[in-house]
Amino acid sequence: MGILSIAAAAILSGVRGYKAISHWADNLGQKTRGRFRCRRVDGRYIVPSQYVIRDVLIRVDPAEVDRALQRWNTAGACPGEGRGPAGQQLGHRRQQDAQRDR
Prior knowledge:
Blueprint: H1 2-12, H2 18-26, H3 30-35, E1 39-41, E2 44-46, H4 50-59, H5 62-75, H6 92-100
Antiparallel strand pairs: 1-2
């Protein structure tokens, strides 16, 4: 899951291509690498190589990733709401407006 998370974050940051994703990951700090659940070797987090990133991304089924993201979105949302790209609940503003107008 860490490789898909790294790739998604890099792409959301505007990065395109395997080499660029790898370079983006190489520039992550240790704390961030830990949050992405990178492998730990001798007390340091190691990001996957460009070749590992490429291998994972060409093997993953895009339709399955889409279904998984839709399930995640549905599971965390209240009825009639979705979640935004950062995980925040959408529709929260609508609830605040309704309370204010009472």
